[in-house]
Structures are given as C-alpha cells and as structure tokens.
C-alpha cells in the first residue's frame, strides 16, 4: 500500500478501508517508537513495552484525526512513516517532561513530610481525585464511559470489548484510545493521570 493509497483509504471513512489502513500502519510501530528504547531515563519513568504500545495507539488516533480534518497532506519530502515518527516524538517528550515534573514534585513532597503523607491528607487527596475523576467521566459521552468502564474496571481486553459491541478488535482499540485521550485532556487541568 502506498502512502497515497493509505491516505485515500483513511479519508474514505469506510470502516473496512480505515481498518485496512490502520493494519498497514502497524508495520511502522517499531520505527515510530524506536527512540523510547534509547532514552536514558526510560527505566526511571517506567516506560516499558506497554507504554510504547499506548504511545503508538495515540499516534495512530492523532494521525487519523489529522487526515480526517484535512490537517495532513502528502508532501514529496515527507512520507507517512516520518510523519508518524514526528507525532510520536512530540507526544513522548511532552509526556516525559510531565512525568519528570510529577516525580520531582512527589519527591519534594515526601522529603518535606515523613515517609508517608499523614492519613488525613491522603484521605482528602483521594476524595478530591475521585471527585475530579467522576466529573471528568461524566463529561464523556455514554460510549466513552462504557469503554473506560469495561477496560479499566471490568478488566476486559480490546478483543472482548469488540465482541460485546460487534466491532473489530482494532476498532475497539481505536475507540478506547480516543476516549482515553478525551479523559486525559479533562484531567490535565487537575494534573491527574489519565
């Protein structure tokens, strides 16, 4: 499949064509996330294979949205693989910077207190985080809430979710990551992990 055929299939918005294009894009996964393995702070940040899988899913969703919104056009000097790599690198370094700030903030907090935060403080923090999370979940549409609930609370796989909803595993993954990104954007204002 050429880059032109790939973009044409995505722009068609036909589920079978889009799924075929996304399946083809998975050939680029190793290349698109290759720089994560060379990051010296990868172990500190706990960026494992699951993290790379999540990062690649976010890149695919962003690429699909950019194509559908007309924000991506093929150019002679940039191919799809390079474009995906650039999106991946940008998202990675944003997330990396955020995680490093969080680690620094957390370590500063624990240096100032005993080994553990006081129980009353921890309870207040837990309640506030739960309140904010419920608020953010309520801002998702019904499908988004259902996907997040099935994946995180019922611990279902993308394949199981797809079977329940009558869609492919790839489509289930795409929808889940789209909803997870929406939830993360809502939680970002409160600096809670998405």
Could you name the key traits of this structure?
194 residues; mainly alpha; Arc Repressor Mutant, subunit A; globular; sigma factor activity; transcription; sigma factor; transcription regulation
CATH topology of the largest domain: Rna Polymerase Sigma Factor, Chain: A
Q: Report the uncertain regions.
A: none
Which geometry do the CA atoms define?
globular
Q: Write the CATH architecture name of the largest domain.
A: Orthogonal Bundle
Q: What is the total number of structural domains? A: 2
Distance between the termini: 34 Å
Query: Which structural class fits the helix and strand makeup?
Result: mainly alpha
Beta-strand share of residues: under 5%
Radius of gyration: 19 Å
* Count of helical stretches: 10
Largest sheet: none
Total beta strands = 0
Q: Give the fraction of residues assigned to helices.
A: over 70%
Q: Under the CATH scheme, which class of the largest domain?
A: Mainly Alpha
Mean pLDDT, as a whole number?
Answer: 76
Based on the structure, what is the oligomeric state of the protein chains? single chain
Q: Report the order of strands and helices.
A: HHHHHHHHHH
InterPro entries: RNA_pol_sigma-70-like (IPR039425), RNA_pol_sigma-70_dom (IPR014284), RNA_pol_sigma70_r4 (IPR007630), RNA_pol_sigma_r2 (IPR013325), RNA_pol_sigma_r3/r4-like (IPR013324), WH-like_DNA-bd_sf (IPR036388)
Keywords: DNA-binding, Sigma factor, Transcription, Transcription regulation
Domain RNA polymerase sigma-70 region: 136-176
Organism: Arsenicibacter rosenii
């Amino acid at each position: 499949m050429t880059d032109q055929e790939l973009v044409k299939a995505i722009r068609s918005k036909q589920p079978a064509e889009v799924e075929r294009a996304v399946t083809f894009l998975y050939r680029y996964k190793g290349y698109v996330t290759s720089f994560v393995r060379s990051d010296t702070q990868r172990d500190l940040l706990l960026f494992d294979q699951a993290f790379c899988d999540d990062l690649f899913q976010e890149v695919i969703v962003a690429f699909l949205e950019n194509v559908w919104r007309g924000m991506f056009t093929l150019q002679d000097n940039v191919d799809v693989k390079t474009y995906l790599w650039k999106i991946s690198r940008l998202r990675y370094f944003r997330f990396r910077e955020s995680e490093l700030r969080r680690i620094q903030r957390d370590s500063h907090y624990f240096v100032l207190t005993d080994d553990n935060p006081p129980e009353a403080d921890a309870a207040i923090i837990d309640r506030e985080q739960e309140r904010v999370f419920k608020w953010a979940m309520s801002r998702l549409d019904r499908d988004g809430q259902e996907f997040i609930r099935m994946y995180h609370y019922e611990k279902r796989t993308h394949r199981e979710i797809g079977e329940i909803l009558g869609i492919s595993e790839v489509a289930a993954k795409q929808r889940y990551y789209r909803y997870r990104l929406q939830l993360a954007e809502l939680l970002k204002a409160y600096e809670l992990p998405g």
